[in-house]
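Chain A, query sequence.
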Amino acid sequence: MRLKIVPITIAEEKAKGAELGKFLDDQSNYGIVPFKEKKDPVSAWAMPFITGHRYRLHWEAGLDFDSMKIEVSEMWESTDKDVNLVFNFTE
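Chain A, predicted structure.
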């Protein structure tokens, strides 16, 4: 299962208005992170994010999960800007 990532600000989402759905449906707007099976760490991804940015993340097959662990790099400093990760939510 692959993880799809698109960097997008709240302002960009608002500016797209009714076209946002079309933008998010267009696969060429996404970066793809392949799933890493049975490696160390088990069933995990490792990827860089640029601090001060916002990303929409979506599992390609609509994976349903209850929890997820995110760890920061040892290079991260407390003075770094936040990274905002947005996931789809359906109850």
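The mean pLDDT is 83. Residues 3-64+80-87 form one domain.
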